[in-house]
Design goal:
The complex is a heterodimer of chains A (368) and B (636).
Chain A (H helix, E strand, L loop, with lengths): L5 H5 L3 H22 L9 H22 L3 H24 L1 E3 L2 E6 L4 E2 L1 H16 L15 H16 L3 H18 L3 H21 L2 H11 L9 H14 L10 H4 L11 H34 L3 H25 L17 H20 L4
Antiparallel strand pairs in A: 1-2, 2-3
Chain B lengths: L1 H8 L7 H28 L1 H12 E6 L6 E2 L5 E13 L7 H12 L4 H10 L8 E4 L4 H9 L7 E11 L6 H4 L1 E4 L2 H4 L10 E5 H5 L1 H5 L3 E7 L5 E8 L6 E4 L3 H11 L4 E6 L6 E7 L13 H9 L8 H4 L9 H11 L7 E4 L2 E4 L2 E4 L7 E4 H7 L2 H11 L1 H10 L21 H8 L5 H8 L9 H13 L2 E3 L4 E5 L5 E4 L4 E4 L4 H16 L16 E7 L22 E8 L6 E7 L5 H19 L30
Parallel strand pairs in B: 2-10
Antiparallel strand pairs in B: 1-8, 2-3, 3-4, 3-5, 6-7, 8-9, 10-18, 11-12, 11-23, 13-16, 14-15, 17-20, 18-19, 21-22, 22-23
Helix pairs in contact in B: 11-22, 14-16, 14-17, 15-21, 16-19
The chains are: A mainly alpha (368), B alpha+beta (636).
C-alpha cells in the first residue's frame, strides 16, 4: 500500500477531480461575492479560510483516492462509533450559534460532527449490507439494525436541532437500503408508514421548524417573517435573468436581503450574479459529478465499492436537490449546505474525503 | 494491460444494476425539475422579479417644488413660503402616550394635542405614522421642545415649507388659499400625491399649475434594514413661477381700511386696460389658517358664519344697482334719441303710474329738471319717464351691451352673472308677460335687476374710456425664478360699444356734477387736485311698496339699504374706475362715497395727476362729433 502503484496515477479519475475543483471554485467565487464589501474592505477572512479548506480538502481527496477503500470496511463500525461519540460531545459540550448547538470548537476549526455523521452512516450502512440480500431482497426484520444505526445519529442531530441533516441521514439510509436490495413489498409498506407517521413527526417539530413549513406552503402569508427568506431568495435568483447581474453586482446579496448568504442561500448569491447561464453551469457540474458517481457505482469491482459510490453520490444529490429546491422555493427552508460551494470547513473537507473515496473506487477496479 | 481488459473484467455488479438505474432516473428527474424551476424564475419571471429586487432596494423620495411667490404690481411680495416648525408625535414611539401628551401640552402651552391625535386616529392613521399636533411654533416653543426632548419620547420637530400670506387677510378672496389635496381630487390629478398642497380658492387655485412647479425626486439605494447607501438618481425639483399681480398693495390696504369692518366690497380697475388695482371684500378670512391643513372646527366656523366671510362679494355678490343704473338709462336714452340734453320732465316728488305712486327719493320733488341735473341730484321721477319712453327691452339691450347681466370672465371661481330683466327673460323665468310698471323699478335699478360690484366697476370704466369693455385681469405677468418674464398678460378687449361722444360727454358731465357740484349726491367725495366723476346708488333691501318708507335709522340693520358709489377719475383722462358697495349702510353718497374717495386719494397720491389741477370739465374737452356717427351709436 505504501508503494504508489503506477496504475493508480494512470487510472486516476480526473473527471471527479476536475468537477470537484470546478465546484469548489464556484463556491469560492460565491463566498467571495457573498462577503464582498467593496474593494476598500479587502478580502473577508471567510474567503481566505475557504481557500485554505479547499487546499486541505484537495490534498485529503487525493490521499484518500490513493488508499484502498476496502480497508474502510473493517473500520466502518469504529468510524461510526466515533461519529456518534462526537455527536454526543456536541450535545453535551457543543458550541452553539443562533439557538442550535452544532459545533465542537477545536480552535482552528469548529468541527461539525453532523457532517462526519453523514459519511460515517454511509460507511456503516454499506458495511452492513456488503453481502448480497437473500432472494427476493432484504426482509423488514433484517432492516432492524440499519434502522437503529440511523436512529441514533438522527436523534442526536435532531436534538441540536438540525432538521436538514437529519433529513439527509434518513434519505441516505433510504437510498442505500433501496439500492442494497430491500424487498419491494417492504419498501411499499415503509413508504405507506412514512406517510402515516408524518403527522406524528409534525408533533415533534420545533415551532420555528413548523413555521418554516407553513411559510413554505404559503410564503406571502408572512412576507416579513419566515416567508421572507423564500421570497428574497426567489427575487435574487429571478432578478439574475439570463446572464446575471455580474460579479459583485447582485443587489439582493450586497444589500443583505438574502439570509445566510455564504451557506444555506449561497446558490441565490451565485444565481443572481451569473444568471440562468451560471445556474445551468453549476447544475451541470453537479449533474456531471452525480452521473459519474452513478457510473462508478455500476462499474465498481465489488458490491462494497458499488454501494459506497451510491452513498457518496447520494450525499451530493440529496444536498444539491434540497438546497436548490429550498432556494428556488420548491421546498421548505431547512438548513442544508450546497456541497463544495457553501462556506464551511467541516462540510467541505468531509465532502472532498467522500469524493476521494469515489475516485478510489474507480481506480481500484483496475487493480484487482 | 489491465486497461484493455477492464471492459471485460469490470461488468457492473449484476444484482445492483436495475436499482442503480432506477435511482439514476430519479436523480435525473429531480435535477431536470430544478433546471425547469430555474428557467421559470430566471427567464420567465425575470422581469417581474427584477422589479421586486429594485423595489426592495430603491426608495423614491419626492422633493416637492417650492411654490411660486405672489407679488403686487410693484414686485412687493404678498405671498411667500416659509419654514414652519411643527411638532409631530409618532404614537408608536411614545412610551406612555397620555403622559407624553400631557407633558407636551405643558411645554407648548397648548391644549388641543389630544384632540388632534384623536382626529388622526379617527381618520385611520396607523400608529407608526407621525401626526402633526402643533404647527408654526413660535421660537420659545421650539426651544422649549428641544430642551425637553428627552422627556418626550416619540415627539419631534419637523420643518415644513408653509404658505405664508404676509398681510394676513389682505386681498384674501383674490389670493385665495391652499390646502391638502383631497382623496377625490387625486383620482384625476395624476401628478399629485397624498399630502400635497393644492390651490383651493382664488388666485392660488386659478394659477395652480403656474405656482406649483414640478416636484423632483431622488432614488436612494437602501439595504435590507433601510439604511441609505447611495443616491442613484436625482431629478431636481423645478420651483413654481412667480405671479406679478396688477393689484397695488397700498391701494388694496387703503380700500380695506376704508371699508373697515362693514360688510361690503370694492373693485378698482384701470379703465384703459381692465387691470384690477384693488379688490376688497369684507368680512374676510385669514388664508394662513388653511396652510398646512385647517382644523375641522376652524373650517366649520368659517363655512357656517352667517356673514359669509369666504364669499368674494366683489364677484359673488349680486345686488340691485340702485341709482347707479341711471347711467345705463342715460346712455340708452340719449343714444336712442328718446332723450336729449334739453328734454325736461317735471318732478313733483313722485309719479302716478298704473294706479300707483312711484316716489322720488326727494319728497318735495325736483321741479322741472333735465338729464344733467337728474344725474347730479339722482332724480327718480326723471328716470321713470326715461325708462318708460325706452321700454324694458331697450334698457336691457343697452345694459347687456355694457356688460351687465353677464359674467366678466375674470379668472376666479363662482362669479355671479347678475340679472338684467327683459320681456323675454320674464317669459322664460316666470312664464309671464312684462308689466310696463315694472320698467319703472328697473329704470332706477330696483326690482329684478342685479349686478356685481365688478360689473359696475366695468360700467364706470366704459364711461371713462368711451365704451370699451376689457376683460378684468389681476395678473400682469408670470416670472421665472431668475426674474425673467415667462408670460405677460396684455389687456384683452371683450367688446366695444359705440357710444356717441356727445352722449358720453353728457353722462360724464353729469357724473362730474355728482361729485363736484354743491347739490351733487356725492359732493363729499370731491378731491382737491382731481376731478372725480361718480354716481351714487341706494339698493333697496326691502322691496318697494312693502310698507311705508321709514327713516333709515329706524329700520333694523338687516333691512337697511345698501349704499353704492361708482366713480372714475380724472374725468378727462381717466386712470382709475371704482365701484363700491357698503351693505345696509343707507345712502351711497355718505357710506360708499368716502370709501371711494379714500382710495382715489391714495391713488392720486401715488400717481399725481400731470400738469397740476386739470381744467374744469366742460363741453370743450371733447369736440362735437359729426352726426353721421350717431346713426350707429346703438349696438344692439
Amino acid at each position: 500500500m505504501a508503494v504508489l502503484d503506477r496504475r493508480i496515477v494512470y487510472h486516476f479519475d480526473w473527471t471527479v477531480f476536475t468537477l470537484s475543483l470546478g465546484l469548489a471554485a464556484v463556491g469560492l467565487v460565491s463566498v467571495l461575492s457573498g462577503t464582498w464589501g467593496g474593494a476598500h474592505h479587502g478580502l473577508d477572512p471567510l474567503v481566505v479560510r475557504q481557500l485554505l479548506w479547499i487546499g486541505v480538502g484537495t490534498a485529503l481527496m487525493t490521499a484518500v483516492a490513493l488508499l484502498d477503500y476496502r480497508a474502510l470496511g473493517s473500520y466502518a463500525y469504529l468510524i461510526y462509533a466515533v461519529a456518534v461519540g462526537l455527536l454526543v460531545v456536541v450535545a453535551v459540550a457543543g458550541h452553539s450559534t443562533g439557538g442550535s448547538r452544532r459545533w465542537i470548537n477545536l480552535g482552528v476549526l469548529k468541527l461539525e460532527p453532523s457532517e462526519v455523521a453523514k459519511l460515517a452512516l454511509v460507511l456503516v450502512m454499506v458495511r452492513y449490507m456488503r453481502e448480497e440480500p437473500p432472494r427476493g431482497g432484504w426482509k423488514a426484520h433484517q432492516m432492524a439494525v440499519p434502522a437503529i444505526l440511523l436512529a441514533i445519529p438522527a436523534a442526536l442531530v435532531l436534538k441540536q436541532p438540525d432538521l436538514g441533516t437529519a433529513l439527509i441521514l434518513i434519505l441516505l439510509t433510504a437510498t442505500l437500503v433501496f439500492v442494497g436490495g430491500l424487498n419491494w413489498r417492504t419498501l411499499a409498506v415503509l413508504a405507506l408508514g412514512a406517510v402515516l407517521v408524518a403527522p406524528v413527526g409534525w408533533h415533534y417539530l420545533k415551532p420555528y421548524q413548523r413555521e418554516r413549513l407553513v411559510s413554505f406552503l404559503n410564503p406571502e402569508s408572512d412576507p416579513l417573517g419566515s416567508g421572507y427568506h423564500i421570497i428574497q431568495s426567489e427575487i435574487a435568483i429571478g432578478s439574475g435573468g439570463h446572464w446575471g447581474k455580474g460579479l459583485f453586482k447582485g443587489t439582493q446579496a450586497r444589500l443583505n436581503f438574502l439570509p445566510e448568504q455564504t451557506t444555506d442561500f449561497i446558490f441565490a448569491v451565485f444565481a443572481e450574479e451569473f444568471g440562468f447561464a451560471g445556474s445551468m453551469l453549476l447544475l451541470g457540474l453537479y449533474a456531471g459529478l452525480i452521473a459519474r458517481g452513478a457510473w462508478i457505482a455500476r462499474h465498481a469491482r465489488d458490491r462494497f465499492g458499488s454501494m459506497l459510490a451510491i452513498g457518496v453520490t447520494g450525499i451530493i444529490f440529496w444536498q444539491v436537490a434540497i438546497n436548490i429546491g429550498m432556494a428556488t422555493g420548491m421546498l421548505p427552508v431547512v438548513g442544508i449546505t450546497l456541497p463544495l460551494v457553501s462556506y464551511g470547513g467541516s462540510s467541505l473537507i468531509m465532502m472532498m474525503i467522500a469524493l476521494g473515496l469515489l475516485i478510489s473506487i474507480n481506480v481500484r477496479r483496475y487493480l484487482f | 494491460m489491465a486497461r484493455f481488459g477492464s471492459r471485460e473484467k469490470n461488468r457492473p455488479v449484476p444484482k445492483l444494476d436495475p436499482r442503480i438505474t432506477a435511482l439514476t432516473v430519479l436523480m435525473a428527474v429531480v435535477l431536470t425539475a430544478a433546471a425547469g424551476r430555474l428557467y421559470y424564475l430566471q427567464v420567465i419571471k425575470h422581469h417581474e422579479l427584477s422589479e421586486l429586487a429594485d423595489r426592495n432596494r430603491i426608495r423614491i423620495q419626492r422633493l416637492p417644488a417650492l411654490r411660486g411667490l405672489v407679488y403686487d404690481d410693484r414686485h412687493r411680495p404678498l405671498v411667500d413660503t416659509r419654514p414652519s416648525f411643527d411638532a409631530v408625535i409618532v404614537p408608536e414611539d411614545t412610551r406612555n402616550l397620555s403622559a407624553t401628551i400631557e407633558r407636551l401640552e405643558k411645554v407648548l402651552n397648548h391644549d388641543h394635542i389630544a384632540e388632534k391625535l384623536e382626529d388622526a386616529e379617527d381618520q385611520g392613521r396607523p400608529e407608526f405614522e407621525p401626526v402633526t399636533v402643533d404647527e408654526r411654533l413660535e421660537w420659545p416653543q421650539v426651544v422649549a421642545l428641544e430642551t425637553h426632548q428627552l422627556e418626550l419620547p416619540g415627539v419631534s420637530l419637523q420643518v415644513n415649507p408653509r404658505r405664508h400670506y404676509i398681510y394676513d387677510s389682505l386681498a384674501a378672496h383674490l389670493l385665495g388659499y391652499v390646502g391638502e389635496v383631497t382623496v377625490r381630487d387625486l383620482n384625476h390629478l395624476p401628478d399629485y400625491r397624498m399630502g400635497d398642497e393644492i390651490g383651493k380658492f382664488g388666485l392660488e387655485r386659478s394659477l395652480e399649475t403656474t405656482l406649483r412647479g414640478d416636484s423632483g425626486g431622488q432614488e436612494i439605494e437602501v439595504d435590507s434594514v433601510g439604511r441609505r447607501l447611495r443616491l442613484l438618481r436625482e431629478i431636481p425639483e423645478k420651483p413654481g413661477d412667480s405671479v406679478v399681480m396688477t393689484l397695488d398693495l397700498d391701494l388694496q390696504k387703503a380700500a380695506e381700511q376704508a371699508i373697515g369692518n362693514r360688510a361690503g366690497a370694492l373693485v378698482a380697475i384701470d379703465p384703459n386696460t381692465g387691470y384690477i388695482l384693488a379688490m376688497a371684500s369684507f368680512p374676510a378670512f385669514d388664508p394662513n389658517v388653511f396652510a398646512g391643513g385647517i382644523t375641522p372646527a376652524n373650517w366649520r366656523a368659517l363655512a357656517m358664519d352667517p356673514s359669509h366671510p369666504l364669499e368674494n362679494r366683489a364677484i359673488q355678490g349680486a345686488y340691485p344697482p340702485g341709482s347707479t343704473f341711471k347711467i345705463v338709462d342715460s346712455i340708452a336714452g340719449l343714444s336712442d334719441r328718446t332723450l336729449t340734453p334739453e328734454t325736461t320732465y317735471f318732478c313733483p316728488g313722485g309719479l302716478y303710474y298704473g294706479g300707483r305712486e312711484y316716489r322720488c327719493w326727494r319728497k318735495q320733488g325736483h321741479g322741472t329738471i333735465s338729464v344733467h341735473r337728474a344725474i347730479v341730484e339722482s332724480c327718480d321721477v326723471f328716470f321713470y319717464e326715461v325708462g318708460e319712453h325706452l321700454g324694458i327691452d331697450r334698457i336691457a339691450a343697452w345694459a347687456h351691451a355694457l356688460g351687465l347681466g353677464k359674467k366678466t370672465d375674470i379668472e376666479l371661481d363662482n362669479e355671479r352673472t347678475g340679472t338684467i330683466p327683459s320681456t323675454a327673460w320674464k317669459q322664460r323665468r316666470f312664464h309671464e308677460r312684462w308689466y310696463p310698471a315694472e320698467t319703472l323699478s328697473v329704470a332706477i335699478g330696483q326690482g329684478y335687476v342685479t349686478v356685481t360690484p365688478l360689473q359696475l366697476a366695468d360700467l364706470a370704466a366704459e364711461v371713462a374710456n368711451g365704451g370699451t369693455l376689457y376683460k378684468p385681469q389681476f395678473v400682469k405677468e408670470i416670472d421665472a425664478l431668475d426674474g425673467s418674464v415667462v408670460k405677460s398678460f396684455p389687456p384683452i378687449i371683450e367688446s366695444r360699444v359705440r357710444i356717441d361722444p356727445q352722449v358720453l360727454e353728457e353722462v360724464r358731465e353729469g357724473m362730474a356734477g355728482v361729485v363736484n357740484q354743491p347739490d351733487g349726491t356725492a359732493h363729499g367725495a370731491k378731491l382737491d387736485n382731481v376731478i372725480v366723476a361718480g354716481k351714487t346708488g341706494t339698493a333697496q333691501v326691502v322691496k318697494e311698496g312693502q310698507g311705508v318708507r321709514l327713516k333709515e335709522d329706524a329700520l333694523p340693520e338687516r333691512y337697511r339699504d345698501h349704499g353704492w358709489f361708482i366713480a372714475f377719475a380724472p374725468v378727462d383722462h381717466p386712470k382709475i374706475a371704482i365701484a363700491c358697495i357698503i351693505e345696509h349702510s343707507g345712502h351711497g353718497g355718505s357710506s360708499a362715497g368716502p370709501v371711494v374717495k379714500a382710495v382715489m386719494q391714495k391713488y392720486f397720491e401715488m400717481n399725481p395727476p400731470q400738469g397740476g389741477p386739470p381744467p374744469k370739465a366742460g363741453p370743450t374737452t371733447n369736440p362735437v362729433t359729426q352726426p353721421a356717427d350717431q346713426a350707429d351709436a346703438q349696438t344692439e
